[in-house]
Amino acid sequence: MARFLSSVVLATLSALQAVAAEEFALGIYGPITSVSNTFLATAVAFDIDFRKHFNASLQERFGAPIIQVTGALHPALVNFTVRIGTSDSNPDVGVTTVLDFILGRDGRTPISGLVGGLHSAISMPVASLAATFNVPQVAWASTSPKLSNKDAYPYFLRTMPPDSIQGSAFWQWLVHFQVPSAVFIYSMESYGEGLFQAVGNNAALAGQSYRVSGVGVRYMPVYYDVEEARASLRLAMGVGTKFLLLGMTTDQSSRFFPVMQDEGVLTQDWQLLASKSVSVNAASTSGFTKDDLPIGFMQFYPVSKGPKFPEFEKLWLQLTADDVIGTDASSRYNLDKLKVSLDSMRVRKVDDSFFSNTSLMQLEEPFLFDAAYTFLLAVNDLLNEGKSLAQINGPVLLAKLKTASFEGISGHVSFNADGDRLASYHLINMQPAPGGGRALVVNGMFNSATKLLSFVGVDPPYWMDGLRHDSLPDNLVICAEGFTTEAGTGMCKPCPAGYYSPGGRGQQCSKCPRGSFAASSGSWNCTLCAQGSYAPEVGSSSCDLCVAGFFAEAPGQEGCFRCPVGRFIASSGASSCSPCGLKMVTPESGTDSAGLCQCAAGSFFLRSSPASSLSESEGCTSCLEGLACPAGLGPPLQLPGFWAEVLDEQARDYSVVRCRNSWECNGGLLGSCADGRQGRACNSCKDGYHPLTDGTCGECAAQDSLPMVYLVLGVALLMIFALIMVNSDLSQQSLNILTIVAVGSQLVMAVQALGAIRQMKIHWVEPVLSVLEFTKLLNFDFDVVNLSCFCPSDDPVVKFVFQLLVYPFCVAVLGITWGISYIARRPVRFDNVFNINGLVLFGFFITLTLTVLLPFQCVGNPNGTASMVTNPGITCYSSARHEGLVALAVLGVLAYPVTIITWIGWTTVKYPSRVSSGTGLHLVQRYRFLFNRFHPHAYYYGLVLLIRNLFVAILPVALVSAPALQVVAMGALLLSSAVVQSRVWPWRTEAANLADLTMSCFLVVVMLGAAPLLDLGQSETEATLGVLLCFAMFGPLLVAICAIAHGVYRRFSPASSYSVFLCHHKGGAGSLARWLKLQIGTHTSCQVFLDSDQLEGLDLIFDTIRSQTKNLVILLTPELLQRMWCAGEIVTAHRNKIPIVTVICDGFAHLIEEELENVPSFWTEQQKHTLASFGISMDMVKEAYRHLQGIPHFTMPRFGSEEKQAGSVLEIVNCCRLPKRAFSSSVGSGSSSTSRPRILITGAVADAEALSVCQTFQILVQRNTQVQAAVVRSREEMENRLPFASYVVVLFSRGMLRDPNFAKILLSANCLRGSAWGRKPELVTVSADAGFEFPGPEFYRELELQGLGLSDAAGSGLLGAEAGPELAQAYRSLLSVLALPLSPLGSIVLLEKQVSEICRRRFHKHV
Predict the structure, then answer these.
(1) pLDDT band at 781, cuts 50/70/90?
(2) If DSSP states are collapsed to H, E and C, what string results for 928-960?
(3) Sign of dihedral through CA atoms 475, 477, 482, 487?
(4) What is the largest CA-CA distance in the chain?
(5) Cα-flanking dihedrals φ and ψ of residue 733, to 5°?
(6) Which of 798, 1293, 1296, 1391 could form an SS bridge with 1250, CB 3.0 to 4.6 Å?
(7) HEC string of 823-882?
């Protein structure tokens, strides 16, 4: 087959050569794109020198040919052509380039001869390829000795001497200088390996192979791994000699030099001798140049410059870049077909500076030039011998090449039988240059014929210590690590096995210490004995193995250790002992057999299946959680608090779950329960049994069902009694009753909270355990009343249904009782029934919520499932019974906590608007259970309590898997609620507040005391509490940071803005402004500025309008425009474009133009100066007043109906574009004719300001008492409302006693109060005007004689003399009542305090 392929190739080549019979093509290749472009320039220089023979212009430009053609110059030689390719230092690229040359795949004539290349690693496959096609090859480098084998490479010749000669030069250098030993570092390719082999062969022939050792560096033509090269270098540095021989290709050495520099090899402590191909000029890609080589560096160079070399240098200096890579050159040499383009190559591209001097020329350039001329001369001789160009190829051409002999630029060129050129080598030495710097100088010569090394001149070479020496420097012959100086020869000899040496002068070999050994000679340190072995003596060359039953786990042991208990080893040399089979243990240490293995305490023997053999068993398995496993092979036992189901007795397959407590599952045999109990986790009592306090179940007797009956009857009677009590008149109930009810509800909630705490994972102890038993009933735990004796069986689902039906049962009792009251014609008001229902829901909210959440309170079991905490026999989310309970629980959640919280939340949110409106106060009375127990300012506290109770119920369920967190969270919740309660002080009586605070504190104490009783493992508790305590410790820091941040924010942030600024005249609309602010507050939560509430900032009032006000609302009364401060406010708003809303009150009229011009006369010079100090001139005032006349206005009917007044307020709110409350009411004050207010308020209602005071007082009283109040404006209103009122309040103001309307209202009230039909409301007086003067005797005498001197407008009589005595008596009665003070023009804080005091002291029926 091979012969067939060869014949096909030869036939193809012959056909191609026949086509190109008139041309001899020579291919030249080399690493022109990876090593140096000078190779390309040298190839071009040859072609130019050859063409001088035929081209006169070239001869004129460059001179005569350097090498004259021997014999006659044949004319056909003009068809001698050259083309150039690249190997790019890559064998694949090189082979492909040559194959294109040979087959003409590059578009040119197939070559008949080949010149190249540089790398032996590439030349070897190329030489094989050329031999296949019978194409002779002359290399200009590629010095590997392997290429001398003509059997493998018959068509290969080279102009550079082979490495076998260079190897002899290296050896002679070692011999001449008496180097004791050296290490040869070589690249692992043909060149490096061949050179190392040549040096080694010379050492072997001399019988001194030990003097040369080698370290190879992987050949890396593409990607150079610096770290891999570094590792190889360090290996060479550790051989024990300071002499390094370097044999590498040019591209590899250029990258290896920086590594040697990094590792400190290029210093005085080493000596380096390099081969000819080691680059000292072309390593520019790495930044390393020959200037970085140290003084004393040595290198062998083949003699490359013959007598004709100066002529070549002259030619070189005449070249240009255009000659090499110009357009004509690229076309002639086919450079556009290079495998790696000149634009993407790794080396510097040819330019004119290349030829400015010869510094860039490489060592190999002369050999390349001469190799090309070898072909040219051979072709010319064959042409002269009569051969045609078509015949000059293959063996004919090869035979002629072998006989070549001519004088080239590198010297005389001839070849031996192996195709090698024999040449001498120069010893190059880096020496200081005379003018400074350094230079490579020829210091010696190796003659290839005599194989002797001689030196030039009388001066010895420089060594790398920077000095000249005839012999080796002392620092280089000191022995390295692992060696000692041999007496007599001075050579470094390796230490024998068992010994080591750190190296250095005078160092002797030392014995290895115990636990270590040196197995081979030349050790610089001792190796620790491996695991499983030991060395008991010093100077050991090996380690002994541990015997059976003993082991050596760590290296470097002097002796072995006994196997610990539970392990054994039956073999020697063990580094560890094997565990007993099947997870068993041994009774003692040092066991060498598995016969004594057994299960330890805390584990039990487990088979993988009933039929499995001992070897197939799982062996001793760790005891399951909840089980006790004594030592031995018997089955485990139950621990108290756990219950185990035996799934497979033979395979010992158990399923362990948690029990409700340790009394119901008291430990012992698997599956056992306390007496009378049955089922999974001992969850239920047997049929006909009921639970006892010790965890057992007792048999039901006849009387055991009575407690359940008594409970049902007791609850029914309690509901009836509560309904009767609440149906009594509230006005007759004292605050003591309220305190009792409040404290009672607190106690019920506290007991329920204890019940919730009882659900936590706490190991309760006596006597607390017994006390907690009493909380069960209030938490609907009907086991206390023997429910299982009342029902057919102890079924958890039945118990849960009973718990859910407790509230419906109470509602049914209330409904039935209410219905019976109507039948008996002693009806109970619906509000009372509603209140009782609310009290039940409010009081038992924790229990109701906790009850419906209990099906979700699941805890994990050791078997991986989860069970209900209250009924551990029910598996969560995987059993039908639990699915039924969850369905009922979801309905319960929607029916109880969700509905109650939503309902109470809505009612609480609506409370402020209902109180302010008055019409909703009857609904507030219906929610007395929610609001009546708390102060008006804390009306929301009922919702707060419900939310707290919601979390009290949720925490035991939500945090069931984190018991430690349960206690901390519950304690934090109770403590937080206590802090809030102490801050708000919400309950209406002092006793109730103190009781609530005390109960909360005791509950916190309970949580503190229960923390150590948590039923947890130590590690789990420490981990959880550690994190929580960390948060608590950083809490003060966090609080401090927040407080400081808030202070900084408040310091630099602008004050909160006001949506409305009320501009008014205090005397004409001060009370109206207060009433208007209260009314706006019912519609929006925006801030309203009223000067009486901001007394401390009146000096900044104009700035407030300018920078913090969105709308200015002006209450236009007759005197307003004449008030200096009002004028300033109006001007400031007008000048700053603040929206202005004008509200015209009764009696106001805008100023006419004449009056506007007289505006300056309104104020004194001092007042005008004050305005001017704020930048306000009189012209600005006039302009602002004119502006008021042109803007739309609203009318406030001060004596109009409440509906009209409420409409005006709403218009003002809308005009100011204020955001409205989500739940605000749009009704008025609630004083409609159909309402029945309990508090009537009157006064000088014919006076606008006095009426506004009454309206303001009405709103504040309603807020404080939660009782509907109304302002009485006429006698008719008094007559209609007095029968239903409890109090009549009269607000004293100036001129009231002479107001006929008030007199008629008072007389009507006196008449009705004295009648037998109606109740007698209590009279309350309030002094609302500091200008009110109590009359003297003269007033009463005048009144009795003349009356008021007016007629009744209704025609019912006179208010003159005939009515005088009655009116005087009414006034005396009125003024005899102590009047409490009220400051209507004061701040809201003062007003609320005064109203609260009036309500507390006077309205005792409703406070």
Answers:
(1) confident
(2) HHHHCCECHHHCCHHHHHHHHHHHHHHHHHHCC
(3) negative
(4) 176
(5) -95, 130
(6) 1293
(7) HCCCCCCHHHHHHHHHHHHHHCHHHHHHHHHHHHCEEECCCCCEEECCCCCCECCCCHHH
Structure tokens at 919: 């019409």
DSSP string across 1230-1256: S--TT---SEEEEE-TTSHHHHHHHHH
Mean pLDDT computed over 848-866: 87
Which single residue is written with the structure tokens 């410790």?
A: 1033
Q: Write out the DSSP string of 383-445.
A: HHTT--GGG-SHHHHHHHHHT-EEEETTEEEE--TTSPPP--EEEEEEEE-TTSSEEEEEEEE
CA–CA separation, 438 and 266 (whole Å) = 15
**Quick check: helix, strand or coil at residue 108?**
coil
- Which are the contacts of 471, defined by CB distance < 8 A and separation ≥ 6? 177, 178
Q: What is the pLDDT of residue 939?
A: 81
> 3-state DSSP call for residue 925?
helix
Average pLDDT over residues 1366-1380: 87
Tell me: pLDDT of 486 over 60. Answer: yes
Q: Tell me the CA end-to-end span of the chain in Å, nearest whole number.
A: 123
**pLDDT value at 1040 more than 50:** yes
Peptide bond preceding 1237 in cis form (omega within 30 of 0) = no
**β-strand 858-860 against 1060-1063: which pairing, if any?**
unpaired
* Residue pair 918/1268 in contact by the 8 Å Cβ criterion: yes
- For residue 594 the two structure tokens come to 């598995």
Give the count of alpha carbons within 13 A of 106, CB side only.
27
Distance from C-alpha of 1236 to C-alpha of 126, rounded to nearest angstrom: 122
Cα–Cα distance, 571 to 1083 (Å, whole number): 94
**Cα 806 from Cα 127, distance rounded (Å):** 107
Strand partners, 1140: 1112
CA-CA distance, 786 to 712, in Å (whole number)? 13
Question: Which residues are paired to 1243 by β-bridges?
Answer: 1291
Helix (H) or strand (E) holding 1115: strand 1112-1116
* CB 300, CB 427: distance < 8 Å: yes
Instruction: Give 939: exposed, middle or buried? Use CB within 10 Å, 0-12, 13-18, 19+.
Output: buried
**Cα–Cα distance between 1154 and 670 in angstroms, integer?**
110
- d(CA 593, CA 597) in angstroms, rounded, equals 9
CA distances from 625 to 451, 640, 1385 (A): 89, 11, 76
Range 203-232 average pLDDT: 90
Sequence-separated (6 or more) residues with CB below 8 Å from residue 992: 738, 739, 742, 743, 746, 933
Contact 599, 631 (CB under 8 A): yes
What's the pLDDT at 18? 40
Q: How many CB atoms lie within 10 A of CB 130?
A: 26
How many angstroms separate the CA atoms of 351 and 363, rounded?
20
Query: Whole-angstrom Cα distance, residue 1206 to residue 1228?
Result: 6
Confidence check: pLDDT of 830 > 50: yes
Mean pLDDT, residues 752-765: 73
- Residue 854: name the closest of 904, 896, 793 by CA: 896
CA gap 250, 118 in Å, rounded: 9
The token duo for 926 is 């219906």
Residues 6 or more apart whose Cβ sits within 8 Å of residue 1290: 1242, 1243, 1306, 1323, 1324, 1325, 1326, 1374
Mean pLDDT of the chain: 83
Burial string for 988-1004 (b: 16+ CB within 10 Å, else e) reads bbebbbebbbebbeebb
1230 prior amide bond cis, ω within 30:
no
Identify the CA nearest to 1402 among candidates 1334, 1328, 1331, 1321.
Answer: 1321
